[in-house]
Inverse folding.
């Protein structure tokens, strides 16, 4: 990596309803290329499926959108090369996410949560329904979605993927699922199973 500057993954909330980049998204990625940063740590958080989007304009990676995500990367690389000459020391990854408790895939004002467990404070604060807790089978299916997304990210030219496990989203919540039963809660081994 050519320098210590990094672009961190924050979703821009300006994609299309079907998870594709918009002109505003493309402009942002062009500016990433202009920035001089050599580590692009995801550029943005990209949902691995519709129900895990933090908002209805969040980018999504799937067979229908992967070509446009590859074009975002290409815009960044081409702009960086024009500005700085070389891209040999440029390292670009993509952050993959499921927003879990904070999913708003269809309306930015309406939560449609998927949680790891019932949280005594957060469930009340965000009016989480009883059926929001994902089963072990649902989590295994989601792991498969992350794996498929990672394979697509590689095909799109990204050097790495980052699995979002912060800010209370599903990956983070699973790490704190000390009272959850089954394969994804309780012990440290179980709570880190999704990430591993």
């Amino acid at each position: 990596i050519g320098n210590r500057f990094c672009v961190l993954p924050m979703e821009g909330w300006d994609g299309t309803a079907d998870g594709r980049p918009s002109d505003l998204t493309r402009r942002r990625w062009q500016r990433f290329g202009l920035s001089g940063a050599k580590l692009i740590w995801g550029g943005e958080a990209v949902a691995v499926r519709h129900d895990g989007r933090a908002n209805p304009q969040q980018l999504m990676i799937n067979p229908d959108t992967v070509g446009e995500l590859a074009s975002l990367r290409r815009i960044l690389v081409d702009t960086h090369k024009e500005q700085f000459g070389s891209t040999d020391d440029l390292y670009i990854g993509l952050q993959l996410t499921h927003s879990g408790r904070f999913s708003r895939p269809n309306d930015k004002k309406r939560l449609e949560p998927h949680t790891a467990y019932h949280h005594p404070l957060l469930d009340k604060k965000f009016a989480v329904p009883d059926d929001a807790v994902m089963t072990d089978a649902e989590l295994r299916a989601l792991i498969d979605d992350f794996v498929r997304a990672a394979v697509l990210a590689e095909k799109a030219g990204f050097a790495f993927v980052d699995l979002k496990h912060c800010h209370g989203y599903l990956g983070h919540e699973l790490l704190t699922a000390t009272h959850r039963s089954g394969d994804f809660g309780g012990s440290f081994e179980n709570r880190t199973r999704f990430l591993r």
About this structure: Residues 29 and 76 are 5 Å apart (CA to CA).
